[in-house]
């Protein structure tokens, strides 16, 4: 972590070494026998996890995040140190490298279009790693207690783990009113506006002058696409997918709460204009874990970097 600034002046700085590995390419005694054009190939095995404050965390990707009055940077650097005794020659270079790991989602079977969870149970379809979330209705403060409210319920079904590649994962929304609901309630049900956005939340924490300081920013990185819907007089079912704006660009991770990159599906279901006082609004944020890639049983042990992460750094 790099810098906190107040009124243009440095107010705090914290830097931590996540890990360090070294390798001797040749001993100094061998230097006299080397060819002038000698080359030395080397590689490092990076650790899967790092220890911070007694806890272990997955190695985070390279990145730099700018917040108002706060900046955080995670970087990886190779230090090459060459010295030759007797000649007073000592050279040192420190090139930065990008660490952009692919992360794999847990296996989540998609929910077929037009298939409800009850249908899935009857047909023995695996719904592991899917969550069903009852949505809580919200009413305006000035809602009239004398007006007959529309008795509306809503449920959201999402996988617990997303990936930012293609194809995007699906969602299902179920809206329902009682069978004996009025014709006006039926009209209100079918006029509801549904929107889902995928948001990225980045939090940076630093102790400044002994006091913990946290800055959080949020941005929309994807949205929904409705593939199909099914309606009756008293119910609506909507199936769709939530995709990212850039393939492979999003990945959730946490480094001891010093830097956190988290994701959530932000759901908003609103009544038509003029019906806000008698039809509830549903607002919900469901935390989802983002990975750069989907599951792959046959994925090679060593893969290339997640290029979507590189695009985010280079933008």
Describe this structure in words.
The structure is a single chain. With 315 residues, this protein is mainly beta. The strands form five sheets. Strands 11, 12, 13, 14, 15, 16, 17, 18, 19, 20 and 21 form an eleven-stranded mixed sheet that branches. It has a four-stranded antiparallel sheet with strand order 2-1-6-5, with no helix packed on it. Strands 3-4 form a two-stranded antiparallel ribbon. A hairpin with a 2-residue loop joins β5 and β6 (70-74). The chain has helices spanning 117-122, 183-190, 307-314, and strands at 3-6, 9-12, 49-52, 55-58, 63-67, 70-74, 76-77, 80-84, 89-93, 96-97, 130-135, 137-138, 153-159, 161-163, 169-176, 193-208, 211-232, 235-244, 253-255, 259-270, 281-291. 23% of the residues are buried. The two termini are 20 Å apart.
Structural class: mainly beta
Mean of residue pLDDT values: 79
Look up the CATH topology of the largest domain.
Immunoglobulin-like
Number of strands: 21
Based on CA atoms alone, the radius of gyration comes out at 27 Å
Topology overview:
Blueprint: E1 3-6, E2 9-12, E3 49-52, E4 55-58, E5 63-67, E6 70-74, E7 76-77, E8 80-84, E9 89-93, E10 96-97, H1 117-122, E11 130-135, E12 137-138, E13 153-159, E14 161-163, E15 169-176, H2 183-190, E16 193-208, E17 211-232, E18 235-244, E19 253-255, E20 259-270, E21 281-291, H3 307-314
Parallel strand pairs: 14-21
Antiparallel strand pairs: 1-2, 1-6, 3-4, 5-6, 7-10, 8-9, 11-13, 12-21, 13-15, 15-18, 16-17, 16-20, 17-18, 19-20, 20-21
Organism: Dacryopinax primogenitus (strain DJM 731)
Protein name: Arrestin-like N-terminal domain-containing protein
